[in-house]
Structure to design on (343 residues):
């Protein structure tokens, strides 16, 4: 189970009639009272050797300011405690939870009582947002008699990046291996994904990259069920052999799940054509405009999900994924293409 949501409270006494020493005295009194609260995980003075303009300081301490760290489940009790202690004080309070901040200002009990419900509502909203995890569904296929791809490494590296991410509790990683056509819709019904990531082979175009330079290639020769000149993803059939996935059929599948899927990543060669079809129904779709090597595909995926795990947008994550390819010294950073439909 994920840890409860952390809440950080910053309190600043701002009575204009008090000088820096008097503000600090008020903060020290409150600090001494709050030290005995079991709900508080950490309590400290606000230290800044170079305070912003307008903030009075005593040495490196910002006068009249302190911070408290607690779990969400304990926050309301702390707010009640503060309501009793600050009812006749003039102060500002900043509440931070789930990466969002709320600032309230109160001067006297009336304003304080009006402000506390706003803080409680803010905390409830952030708790609900934090609890709503988003599923990332990774679909992998490496049919028999095709070159071995490092699909397990791709999944492992993505998972490792999400585990260390600042918003790791936001995502749940779901994986499906040796995917057949019916496995696609079953997995989407079961996991209700926000992001769908396909990892494996495609067909189309002519090979120009060597395995020594770029790792195993994610392109294969024409397979049964495909027409000459078609480009797109390859899954497995019942016997584990390669089976071309029709682009129109794939786009229609995503049309049915358009109410839940925000982004589709086709991390395979020549998948731009199918990305163009899918983006009719999905806001963000990433495909490859040519052949892509295994190393480049993995670097892109890791950079992309590292950015999402840090709370960045899909567009930023795409740019970071391309940059990660280039940083690895692989000349394929222009291969991934982002399609958008934000209407």
């Amino acid at each position: 189970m994920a840890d409860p949501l952390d809440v950080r409270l910053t309190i600043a006494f701002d009575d204009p009639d008090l000088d820096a020493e008097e503000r600090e005295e008020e903060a020290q009194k409150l600090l001494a009272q709050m030290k005995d609260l079991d709900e508080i995980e950490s309590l400290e003075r606000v230290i800044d050797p170079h305070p912003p303009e307008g903030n009075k300081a005593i040495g490196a301490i910002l006068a009249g300011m302190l911070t408290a760290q607690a779990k969400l489940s304990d926050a309301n009790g702390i707010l009640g405690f503060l309501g009793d202690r600050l009812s006749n004080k003039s102060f500002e309070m900043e509440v931070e939870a789930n990466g969002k901040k709320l600032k309230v200002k109160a001067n006297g009990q009336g304003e304080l009582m009006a402000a506390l419900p706003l803080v409680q509502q803010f905390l409830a909203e952030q708790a609900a947002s934090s609890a709503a995890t988003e599923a990332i569904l990774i679909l992998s296929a490496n049919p028999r008699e095709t070159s071995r791809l490092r699909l397990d490494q791709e999944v492992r590296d993505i998972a490792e990046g999400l585990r260390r991410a600042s918003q790791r509790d936001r995502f749940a990683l779901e994986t499906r291996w040796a995917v057949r056509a019916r496995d696609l819709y079953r997995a989407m019904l079961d996991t209700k994904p926000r992001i769908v990531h396909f990892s494996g082979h495609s067909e189309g175009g002519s090979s120009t990259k060597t395995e020594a330079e770029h790792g195993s290639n994610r392109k294969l020769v024409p397979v049964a069920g495909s027409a000459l000149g078609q480009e797109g993803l390859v899954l497995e059939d019942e016997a584990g052999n390669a089976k071309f996935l029709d682009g129109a059929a794939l786009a229609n599948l995503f049309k049915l799940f358009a109410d839940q899927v925000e982004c589709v990543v086709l991390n395979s060669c020549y998948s731009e054509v199918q990305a163009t079809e899918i983006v009719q129904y999905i806001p963000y779709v990433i495909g490859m405009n040519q052949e892509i090597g295994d190393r480049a595909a993995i670097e892109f995926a890791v950079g992309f999900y590292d950015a999402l795990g840090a709370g960045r947008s899909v567009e930023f994550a795409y740019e970071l994924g391309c940059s990660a390819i280039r940083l690895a010294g692989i000349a394929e950073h222009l291969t991934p293409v982002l399609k958008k439909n934000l209407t």
The domain at 6-131 is CATH 3.30.70 (Alpha-Beta Plaits). Confidence is low (pLDDT under 50) at residues 210-215.
